[in-house]
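Hello Y.,

Per our agreement to keep a running log of every chain we model this quarter, I'm adding this entry. I've kept the format consistent with earlier entries: sequence first, then predicted structure.
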Amino acid sequence: MEFDAEVPYGHGKAMFRIMKENPGIYCASLLNFDGDEMHGPPMEITLIRGIRGWTGSESDDVLINVLGNLIETHLIKQYSKQGSKK
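Predicted structure for the entry above:
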């Protein structure tokens, strides 16, 4: 699984490519950021789906949860497409 996701970050927008590494573990790699580079997002973030939510390799809980929610939305869309093909 791989997809691109745009998220607000500071006074700009960040585009990440999200890739599945293992079950429940994803990597988000920064593709582009149109805001202040001095206050930009990290280049790579590891996201881990836990029982109570998302954790990650960065301390920015808002960014971790936004990316985690986008992963969940993408997975739901992917599974619903597979289900409609049957």
